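Box 3.1. Reading complex inputs
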Amino acid sequence: MGKKEEEEKKDRAALLLERKKITFNLVLLLAASFVVLIGVLTMAWFAKNTMVKGNGPGISAKDGKGYTISFLENSTNGIFSDYYDAIREETDPSVLVMGMTADSNLDNYESTDEGIVPGASGKMSFYLTPTGNPVDLKFEIEIVGYVSSVTDDEITMTELDDGDLKDHLNGHVFLFEEYDETTETYAKPILPDANSKRVFTREFDSQELVNIYWVWPEHLSNLVNAYNGTTITAHTLVDDQGDDYDDIVENVCAYPTYYFRSESAGATLNNLTETKLTSEYVTYGSLYDAADNDIGTGVDYILFRMKVTVNEE
Amino acid sequence: MLLKNIARWKEQFHSLKKAQKIELVLAAVLTLAIIIGVPVYAWFVQEDRVEAFTKIKAPITLDIRAGKKKDIENFVLDGIDLKGIMENNEPERFVFCVKTGKPNVEYDIQLAHTTNIPFTYTLYRAAEVTDGGSYHVDFTPIDYPDEHTYYKIDGAALNLEILNGDQATASHYGRKLAKNNDGYYSITYDSQATDGIPEIYAVPLYSQATVTAIDADYDFFILELGWTASSKTDFDQWNIADNNKESDVIYISASIHTQ
């Protein structure tokens, strides 16, 4: 081996060593960055984790955005929490669990409650408290269905992947902002949009008890006035002369798959109008009931999920 | 002092090899990204999420439809040709379907009917005939009499267990009647009623078959109404009597099987 070759070999070895050093340092730096990143995020998670587990008055959520959310005195997480816990890690462990009481629940408070069925109704309540200036908030609600199975005491929850059933949950569990107990009439429906989201906004000057009224309408005639003087009675949930009624009918016609079983219905769901719904009530009432049945047999649990943000619009 | 330090750092930086310079810049950029990124991310997730969770109670009765999954109003039992049943030995058959929503679920189909006419009631699973083969039922919806769907009996008769049957007797044309002294009777009728007790033919006879859902969709069934001729069920004698214009009420219900 010549001197020149020897020197070249040494140079190559030195270069290789240098590269190794650089690579090692880079890996070290990246690892350190990840450690910092994970560390900060974990800390943020702990700081954010405001899950409400216990009971008691004035359970408060978190501050820093100009308001707090808290639940009713002596509220609980509801009686189906074993099943709920099975999905909590998947959803977001930092979420607040809506407090349930005897008067404010989803038919999930007492041991005798068996869940919701067509015809069931109720309300869920929480306190919204501005911590400084008045706040304008946006509430975005979605309802997610789950199918459960239990094997050897192990609960498995599977989010619905059936498009029809997912759609039906939008049109069969109704939400309202207001309810008049005297006239038994609801107002301000929180209707689903094309993305299966239900949005309402509200301004808060001081602490307010927010009620969200829920109804699973038993019949299509609870939504559309199909009164015909004989077999179909008039019992719509909202005043059928008002804007709320028009909004509901418009929603039914715009998103028929939210309300009706589409199977074997074919073109019957195209170009719906109030006149068509009422004049062919036997067909549409039956398809509405069929969708009820499909939910009852195909969905085991539902998750009511509400996102609260400051209204930027 | 600071200027001196800066000058020294500059000198040190320049003395570094190209690869080391890249390394240093990369480290600085990454650190900055973390410092800026984390608060920005945290700012974006500034929102509350509130959740509530409940159960959907399964319906007590399952969805029953007529043939072709049409509304139950299309399950029409009128126009039964009694004489035809006897003379041609061809029972009348009707198709209906039941949906559980889940496969392999056990459910009960219950038949409740009055016993004015000495029919025999038999239940079969049904299968749609699509290839023009022989069939047992030609189903047409009321509003679309030209839309034919054909069904055939699929398998043996289901075990339709009578829950409240009395002894069949010749004086009752060999038919089973409902008992008038069992639990079903006592929870349905008030034995102390002052306006009389119901006629025994009007007391429904309950029978029930337990089946397993094939899939999440509809299972199809054929209800067969027949008449078994025997010394006890003399059709001619029954037919010439005043009661040849009798009618019966038939209920079919389906519910998830409970032990």
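In summary: Residues 63-256 of chain B form one domain.
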